[in-house]
Amino acid sequence: MGKMVYLMGKSSTGKDTIYRELLKSSSLQLKKIVPYTTRPMRAGEKEGREYFFTDEAGFLKLQDEGRVVEARAYHTCYGLWRYFTVDDGHIDLENENYLIIGTLESYIKTAGYFGKEKVIPVLLEVDDGVRLQRALDREWRQETPKYEELCRRYLSDAEDFSEEKIREAGVTKRFSNENLEHCLAEIEEYISG
Ligand SMILES: Nc1ncnc2c1ncn2[C@@H]1O[C@H](COP(=O)(O)OP(=O)(O)OP(=O)(O)O)[C@@H](O)[C@H]1O
């Protein structure tokens, strides 16, 4: 029976970095479930790799078809940005293991959709100061840095990942990403065990 590893954490805790590394692991054999978003593509991103990029009309069409597993909406400085998972016919939890990035709320919905025993939460944590520095460094390298959005996300993270919400979601295990190699080793051991 397959399982779905659900990566979560505040902004710049290293979700994308760890996602890429875990996919490379030959012992884990994790497959991608590429989420969908209506936000504009960032420098270095590629259609169908980090996300499938669509627009509001695309989201509404998929929702009408009953194919949206979970959806999150963010009122950003640049308008409404949605992030969502689509049951687009490629998810085979009987035979395959998957890796996906999401939020606490989307984890709860996905675990409700596929079954809690099939969805394994992996919550990443990094000291707030270190995390803000990493976010700033990353944004600075973008062609058009969006510092306002960085600040908005940093502030909303505290609410989205409050201790109360973590408890409510039933997430007990946390993984510190101060050091990438240690963090990866710890996650790999947890998933395989
Ligand atoms: N252990 C680490 N040590 C130092 N830098 C790291 C580490 N992990 C990730 N980073 C760097 O921190 C930045 C944020 O990482 P990443 O983009 O993977 O985070 P994220 O959680 O996916 O962020 P967001 O949710 O904002 O998209 C990147 O520039 C990445 O290279």
TrEMBL record:
Any one Gene Ontology molecular-function term assigned to this protein's record: kinase activity
Source species, domain of life: Bacteria
InterPro entries: GK/Ca_channel_bsu (IPR008145), Guanylate_kin-like_dom (IPR008144), Guanylate_kinase_CS (IPR020590), MAGUK (IPR050716), P-loop_NTPase (IPR027417)
UniProt domain Guanylate kinase-like: residue ranges: 2-192
Keywords in alphabetical order: Kinase, Transferase
Tagged with keyword Kinase: yes
Keyword Cytoplasm: no
Name of this protein: Guanylate kinase
